[in-house]
Amino acid sequence: MMNGFRRLLVAGGAIAAAIAGEPVPVSVRTAPGRFEIAAVDASVAHALATSAEEAWRVLAGPLALPVSFPSPVFVRVDAADSVGDPAPFRVVVEPGGVVSVRIPRVAVGQPTAQRAVVQGLLLRLAVAQRGVNERLSAPLWLEHACVGWWRTRAAGAQLDALKQESAQLPVPTLAALLTWRRGGAEPRELTAGAVWLLTFLQMESGRAREWPDLLQRLLGGEEPLAALSAAYPGRFGDAGEREMWWATGCQHAQRVRTLPAHDSAESRAQLGTLARFVFAGPSEEADRVVPLREVLARKGEAIVAAELTLRSAAVERLIPALHPFYRNAGLALAEAFRATTKDEVRRAALGAAWEQDWRDASELEAATAAALDKLEARARPGP
Fold this sequence. Notes:
- By secondary structure, the chain is of the alpha/beta class.
- Helix content is 57%, strand content 9%.
- Helix 2 packs across helix 3, helix 2 packs across helix 4 and helix 3 (111-130) crosses helix 4.
- The longest helix is centred in the C-terminal third of the chain and has 36 residues, at 344-379.
- The radius of gyration is 23 Å and the shape is globular.
- The two termini are 37 Å apart.
């Protein structure tokens, strides 16, 4: 079953705090075992949760993310005037394996917040794969690569812009990218090159699962150049051949005509997540799925309105990349999210249109898969 957004408003002492005039903290969770966002401002928490869930969806393929982790990545948004740390954000792996991220309020919606989310996700994946140890690593190049992958897959125009920009930039050496350390300069040729390196390494990976092997080695803290040689055997003999392999592959990756389009299964998963609302009931165990028609009826509530606005923007970005089977369903969902009508009949019609288009797309996907299976079975030689 596809997981959707979940949200939980902190209760108990919140009422007393509100009476005393203190800020009331809000905790918002995405799908279980992914992210939990804590912030004083509810709109900030919901916006960051939506962004984090988008990051998970986009990076699930390249990072081979599980459906969920045993514990989520905990993200705390501090008030802007309470942060005295010179670092733009902090990510900590605690002894028990909990990964926590702290970012200032002013960073939400900025590239800094995207990097914080990605770094937290990488370290949580490292903990899941290797357990807690002092060698765990989130390589700087991979952090920038995942942020760039996220941006270019969430908005197709960003991929075109990256291609045009990269054509004017020198191709960084593979050694420079893999051994790039924090604390120094972050030139644009490295941040752009990191995205192409992630693309190239996935293109070079086959049935031997070279890229997943390298990813696990890097997150485990292995020396990067040695890890590359071990994960991609036979690709090069020495440093010169290694750089030629990369330079040729980078140029090819930049010139391949690609569209950030999703297949039918991925389109179904992403659209289904955006259409699924799970709200907290009287207790944490009483969460329930709320039908779209009921959500639309409650659009006058501030938190519901804010969530629909964020999801509307997400659907609009997703529509150009949807598989043709799911394009009409995406358009119907976007229209339902945008609607401002108070007419109950109209709301019901919008909900019904979405449900029908969703059923049509699912049936078309299933019928196509069955037809292809039959065709493949006929083409397969008999015993």
